[in-house]
Amino acid sequence: MIKILNPEEIYKKSFDIIRNQLNLDNSLKSDITVRVIHATADYDIGRSLMFGNNPDRAVSNLKNNITIITDINMVKSGITGYKNVKCFINDRDVIEKSKSSKISRSYLAIKKAVKLYNDAIFVIGDAPTALLSLIEEIENNNCRPSLVVGVPVGFVNAIESKYKLLKINYPFITNMTRKGGTPTAVAIINELIKNVY
């Protein structure tokens, strides 16, 4: 018979298994790695995480209620315990411009976000085009992100966009595989938020 554990026990046991199997310490980077593996049941994603330019600083920015920008509403919906989260992908002007230009909404939504919140935390979990759009703005000195969580998933431009992210001089968290997606992005940012409260 399978033993049914209460939620807290399941959570703790799962985290302990992951931490012990990878011999992880109690640093924030390790906590993020554990949370990502737990959310995806995929050790490869956790092992491929890369952290650039001290992403731990994002915790102090979150304490100051900095805006979080997401590429899609699914990522926005997954972020818990933090109210200042915005996504522009369903804005009428973004939809209309996407239809007329044949350019993806995620690409255009990031352009709009940068004009309004150029120092935000950007959390991109779905669309490589969103990450490419953000990197363009950074390269053109239009954006000074407090943190970029760039873990888009897919077969077209996912890896390429992540390699471009490695070259920016701002804090970032990414993973160097085609894997990623909403669960990965949400796990990363929620672990950072957990350290605020």
Task: Give structural notes.
The mean pLDDT is 91. The longest helix is centred in the first third of the chain and has 16 residues. The chain is globular. It has one domain: Cobalamin biosynthesis CobH/CbiC, precorrin-8X methylmutase (Rossmann fold, 3-Layer(aba) Sandwich), CATH 3.40.50. It has a six-stranded mixed beta sheet with strand order 1-6-5-4-2-3, sandwiched between helices. It has 197 residues and is an alpha/beta fold. Helix 1 packs across helix 2, helix 2 runs antiparallel to helix 10 and helix 6 crosses helix 7. The protein starts with 6 loop residues before the first helix and ends with a helix. 51% of the residues lie in helices and 11% in strands.
User: How many distinct beta strands?
Assistant: 6
Query: What fold name stands as the CATH topology?
Result: Rossmann fold
Low-confidence stretches: none
Measured by DSSP, the beta-strand proportion falls in 5-15%
Strand order within the widest beta sheet: 1-6-5-4-2-3
How many domains make up the coordinates?
1
CATH class: Alpha Beta
CATH superfamily: Cobalamin biosynthesis CobH/CbiC, precorrin-8X methylmutase
SS-derived structural category:
alpha/beta
- Number of helices, where a helix is a run of at least 4 consecutive DSSP H or I residues: 10
Radius of gyration: 17 Å
The percent of residues in helical segments reads 40-55%
Q: What characterizes the major β-sheet? A: 6 strands, mixed
Mean pLDDT: 91
- CATH architecture assignment: 3-Layer(aba) Sandwich
What gross morphology would you assign?
globular
H/E order of the elements?
Answer: HHHEHEHEHHEHEHEH
